[in-house]
Automatic annotation (TrEMBL):
This is DYH5 protein. GO terms for cellular component: axonemal dynein complex. GO terms for molecular function: dynein intermediate chain binding; dynein light intermediate chain binding. InterPro entries: DHC (IPR026983), Dynein_heavy_tail (IPR013594). One of its GO terms (biological process) is microtubule-based movement. The gene is Dnah5_0. It comes from Ramphastos sulfuratus. Residues 5-167 form the Dynein heavy chain tail domain.
């Protein structure tokens, strides 16, 4: 029972740390007003890396041994642990899925940054169609908040590109 208590203390600390990561990941992002769409992709890549690392740690043999000992002891901390494990898996899947879909837009992001205003406008219809497809298909990127944030960043990039074009011309 002494070993069980020590292991429960360890798992309780892990639970607090994981909850903190989850809470921070759900907080409102503070971003500069002029960020382009590449920042959206970078955000999800960072988030994917964070949650994949966390998943790797949770699935490590050391953690699995501790959890199996607590399962044998019928520890009450396991209920919270399983809920957090599920939340992390969902967050990792969301980030991975969003990165996958945003990568389909990466070519457009490069075009928006380097094109002239006329050339840029030629690509807008296919860009919008791709965003519409992502909105319809993605299980996670299909909220108005996510698409609005992306469209805002795309607009920022278009404005920045036009300003550059005007200043150079």
């Amino acid at each position: 029972t002494e070993v069980t208590e020590k292991l429960e203390e360890v798992v309780t600390i892990w639970i607090k740390q994981i909850r903190q990561v989850l809470v921070e990941s759900e907080q409102m992002r503070r971003e500069a007003d002029d960020l382009g769409p590449s920042a959206e992709l970078e955000h999800w890549k960072t988030r994917m890396s964070t949650f994949n690392s966390l998943l790797d740690e949770i699935k490590s043999s050391r953690v699995k041994k501790i959890i199996s000992i607590l399962q044998a002891a019928r520890s009450k901390t396991l209920k919270q642990w399983k809920e957090l494990d599920s939340s992390i898996t969902i967050a990792a899947n969301e980030a991975k899925d969003n990165v996958r879909y945003l990568y389909t837009l990466d070519n457009f992001f490069c075009l928006l940054a380097k094109a002239s205003p006329v050339t840029m406008m030629e690509h807008v219809p296919s860009l919008m169609n791709t965003i519409c497809m992502i909105y319809c298909i993605s299980p996670y990127y299909n909220t108005s908040e996510r698409v609005t944030s992306l469209l805002l960043k795309i607009t920022n990039q278009m404005i920045k590109t036009c300003k550059t074009y005007l200043c150079e011309g």
